[in-house]
Amino acid sequence: MIPYLLLFAYFAVVYASLWKLFVKAGRPAWEGFVPGYNLYVWNKLIGKPWWWLILLLVPGVNLLMLIIMNVNLSIAYAQREFKDHVLMTFLPWVKVPELAFKEEFKYVGPIPKEQRKRGLLGQWGDAILFAVIVATVFRTFTFEAFTIPTPSMEKSLLVGDYLFVSKLSYGPRMPMTPLTFPLTHHTLPLTTSTPSFVTWFSQPYRRLPGFGRPEKGDAVVFNFPEGDTVVANFQNQSYYQLVRDHGRAKIQDPNTMLPNVVDGEQRLMPTGGILVRPLDKREHYIKRCVGTAGDTLEVRSGYVYVNGKKEDLPEKAQFGYETVLKTALNERALDMLKKNYDVALGDLGNGQGPEAGSVNVALTGEQVAELEKGNPFFGSLTRQDQPRGYTPPGHKWPYFPNHPDYTDWSVDNFGPIWIPKEGATVQLTLANLPLYERIIKLYEHNDLQVKDGTILINGSPATSYTFQQDYYWMMGDNRHRSQDSRYWGFVPHDHVVGKAVLVWFTKDPYTGIRWKRLFTLVD
Questions:
Q1: Which of 50 and 451 is assigned the larger pLDDT?
Q2: Going by C-beta distance under 8 Å and a sequence separation of 6 or more, which residues neighbour residue 169?
Q3: Is the pLDDT of residue 172 over 80?
């Protein structure tokens, strides 16, 4: 509340002062009272171009532009020392009225170009500032660059792919946390957990019109729904699953040592404490949209069924296959495996079978067909198909809705589940409440309690609930190497960032640049 009061106070002070500032500069007083036009005159008095007014319309950028305009205003009124600039930056509520109503401050205009003594540092500073503003506007409202860090979308999107994500496809979101270090997401450069943003000034969720909404088959970038809370040294894992597996007290103790995989090796690491992130600063995920609002979805033996119809697999989708190694995979063997079958070390995992040397390898249908013709590395291939009720060792309720009443689902046999739609009403019971509890409480900001078998929403008994936005079901094309909606549930529409559209650069971790994939469209 205080930031908004300060902002409104600033606008009131400026509006009350501009007419006097204009009179001192030889302009009519009435110009200071005409909204929009007074900003145009202000820019003329400080010697800046008219199109700066456009930048004032851009959330986040507009705050920076007001600071710049304030400093240039002090320059135009002969306050040109460094301390004057600092005071105008941090105390405009005081300095702007002083310039307007104290007679000792005279309008002298901006510094003429021929009198500007600007060194190389000043010139570079202007160029960098302008570049930051332009880049911020571009990445906020049009396209943003992302990289693929994990194999959850292999072989459709590869580790090492650099993408352009279109925010125009679904409509760009207005910044919700506008005060942030430029061109960062949630962490300051050269740090691992220091926030690059402040939350004391925030905006509600708003979205500009786009070309459409997420559809089945789209590769969608979104903010990780469970990323509101993060364990500092385990940011690639769900905080909520870590709590289920180890207990809240251990996870919130920064000195608790837990196993983690770093550079392919398992090590004990301290949790490092808890980080809390607002919606637009949560980790970015990219998955395939397989179900949209209003659909009923089920996974049967790894295949997705929507409204009872079996959906086609993405062309390069992978499943995990259990097999036994015929030979040790030394460096030479791994090179051959990569060259001949496009199977890399990252495609191999620990097998679930008891056989010595068993592995689980992620493969496309095309790779399976080629390997089954005969190969020197793997024995017979059996596609992974976890039965209902299967739970990986060491995990507690790992599958959505992560509740003891839903332990008969698995990664390969899941659902059926209905995906909520804006305006649709569901009848609430204690049996289906776990499916929608997180939506009601966290995504749609209601107080939800259960007392004596009665569901209370915002203090009133409730037997039904009407959803306020659309939701989506997202899954990775690498079906057995993907932490997706099967583990943490629905993706709200306000978490959607954009649609992956173009691979502009790509580099294989093992073989270098993939020249044929450069500037290819995302399927």
A1: 451
A2: 210, 211, 212, 498, 499, 501
A3: yes
